[in-house]
Design brief:
Chain lengths: 96, 485
């Protein structure tokens, strides 16, 4: 049975860039543990020698011509959804 | 005047061609209906009224000039809020996209637009399609038109409820593990998950890229074929799309079809009844074998694989919601790092956070081999066992879900919610086409039940042709529940 600790959860939450307060982390710990417990079934399955499936249609090397297409979308339209702008630049919080 | 309630595509098309109605009249009919009933049903997130009326006028102009119109021209529909719609807010049911207006449309919407279909509304869904009841929408719940105490299913719950409530003739949904078929079954309508790659995912909010499929929710198999014929096909903007020779016409079953039933115990009762009604009047489909659902689903192995791989792909796909280029952004952050983690805390709902965290866990160093890689290998096993079944069967037939729709709020435990996908996920694990059609009414709740037909990759038209034969022999798909105000 999988038992996750609060520090396991906070570590993964950090990897996923999701801030969790103590209360959220505790309920996440319980729910994530029960989900992992449910998916434990796969551990009893013999998969030795099986090739992992990452796609199902068997397509390989999908090529297209490297031609420049006109984009109907203007830079102004693309920037319109940014939370914060300065001139034609997207503004973010300071890095450090 | 002709009765406009519960029209099919072909019937509406005929009325337009015969000039008994205009596209504008039809559009206004649905807009009025939505205005009247949606405050109660809550299926719609955003109305597209002015665009719809403009599109209807274009079609009417064409008709009045005596020009021929295509099958979908002037046909009003709705789309799950996963589809980018140029100039129309697209939220994916999430607060993180509450003010997002895409500057482009998805390929599917573009194709429907070009075919002259009329987009009436963007409809509700579980946030980022994470859920099976539409209760995970960050905006509101949607009710089941058959009984307001019950969920419409999900994640395309808004789409299924909209078709069942007659808010337009069809709806576009997405299906990653059952999200078209399960709500279609809960709401008594027809829902098709096509072969993986048959319909372009370009411009559709990504959930789990190796599973996601786009398909129609309709009243009939024939209508599903009509929509599929328009939206299917190669798209250079989605390199996973496959060649297609699908047309908008149902293909007649010229050869005999070998069908294998999957028996899921008591929940198969209505399926068996429908199948036996077919046996007596169609000799083209032969039900030769029956297998136990437990064998097919290897004691929930398929579901476990799904709930490792899908959150993994989700955690990767949802990295893009960082509050930088688009979407909501937390005001509480002091620096960039905090801006990411506070934005994702504030604007993601609980299930989205859960799946991101499970996915990040399954992909993290030390657990990758035990979870992600192992699940990808086990996915190969499931595909092999299905290949074996299809050695002597053309189609698989069984129930879409184990039970009819459940009561609102009754599945608060995430794992209990996941288990509603038991009979649908395997089609996504193997990229198979599958359709759910109404097959009866549950005696204790009075709610509709669904029958699922699954085929091999590329056999979408065959699956729909069989569904059509069943719908010709029975009338479950014509049952509707009139909404009370």
């Amino acid at each position: 049975m999988v038992k996750l600790s609060i520090s396991n959860i906070q570590n993964v939450a950090q990897l996923a860039r999701i801030e969790l307060d103590a209360k959220e982390a505790e309920s996440m710990r319980l729910e994530a543990s029960s989900i992992l417990e449910f998916v434990e079934i796969i551990q009893n399955t013999d998969t030795s020698g099986e090739i992992p499936t990452s796609q199902v249609t068997g397509l390989t090397d999908v090529w297209r011509e490297d031609v420049v297409r006109l984009c109907a979308i203007t830079p102004k339209e693309l920037l319109a959804n940014a939370p914060e702008l300065q001139d034609a630049y997207i503004k973010v919080k300071k890095v450090l | 005047m002709a009765d406009l309630n519960y029209l099919t595509i072909s019937r509406a098309h005929q009325l337009l061609v015969d000039k008994e109605i205009s596209a504008t009249m039809l559009t206004n009919f649905y807009i009025d209906k939505i205005r009247q009933y949606d405050p109660k049903l809550q299926a719609v997130l955003t109305m597209c009224e002015s665009q719809a009326k403009a599109q209807a006028k274009k079609v009417d102009d064409k008709i009045s000039q005596g020009l021929p119109i295509g099958l979908l021209e002037g046909i009003p529909y709705s789309a799950k809020d996963m589809f980018m719609t140029k100039g129309i807010r697209t939220t994916a049911g999430s607060k993180i996209l509450q003010d997002y207006t895409p500057p482009y449309s998805s390929t599917a919407i573009e194709k429907l637009d070009k075919a002259g279909a009329i987009l009436l509304a963007k409809v509700n869904q579980d946030e980022f399609a994470h859920g099976g009841s539409t209760e995970n929408s960050a905006y509101n719940v949607t009710y089941n038109p058959w009984n307001m105490d019950y969920v419409p299913g999900g994640s395309s719950g808004g789409s299924a409820a909209a078709v069942a409530a007659d808010f337009g003739i069809f709806s576009l949904g997405t299906d990653t593990g059952g999200s078209i078929r399960q709500p279609a079954s809960y709401c008594g309508v027809t829902g098709l998950k096509p072969t993986y790659g048959l319909v372009s995912r370009y411009g559709v909010v990504a959930m789990a890229s190796s599973f996601d499929c786009i398909g129609p929710i309709t009243r009939t198999a024939s209508d599903a074929q009509a929509v599929l014929g328009v939206i299917a096909g190669l798209d250079s903007r989605d390199s996973t799309t496959i060649e297609s020779s699908i047309t908008s016409e149902l293909e007649p079953l010229t050869k005999g079809i070998k069908a294998t039933l999957f028996d899921a115990g008591s929940s198969s009762k209505e399926v068996m009844a429908m199948v036996s009604s077919l046996r007596s009047n169609n000799s083209n489909i032969k039900f030769s074998k029956s297998i136990k659902a437990d064998e097919l689903f290897a004691n929930q192995l398929a579901l476990a694989i799904y709930y490792i791989l899908v959150p993994s792909e989700i955690s990767s796909n949802l990295e893009r919601y960082d509050g930088v280029r688009y979407g909501s952004r937390s005001e509480r952050a002091g620096n960039l790092e905090e801006s990411y983690s506070k934005t994702r805390d504030e604007f993601f709902g609980p299930e989205v956070k859960r799946r991101n965290i499970i996915g990040a866990y399954a992909l993290s160093a030390g657990y990758y081999d035990a979870y992600y890689k192992k699940a990808m290998q086990a996915r190969s096993l499931i595909i092999k066992s299905l290949d074996e079944i299809f050695l002597d069967a053309d189609i698989l037939v069984g129930p879409t879900t184990l039970e009819p729709a459940f009561r609102l709020g009754s599945k608060s435990d995430p794992v209990a919610m996941y288990k509603t996908d038991l009979l649908t996920v395997f089609a996504n694990l193997a990229g198979l086409p599958a359709v759910s059609i109404p097959c009866g009414i549950d005696a204790s709740t009075g709610l509709p039940l669904g029958l699922q037909i699954i085929g091999q990759q590329g056999q979408d038209s065959k699956v729909l042709a069989v569904a059509d034969v069943l719908q010709m022999a029975t009338n479950w798909h014509t049952l509707v529940e009139e909404l009370a105000l």
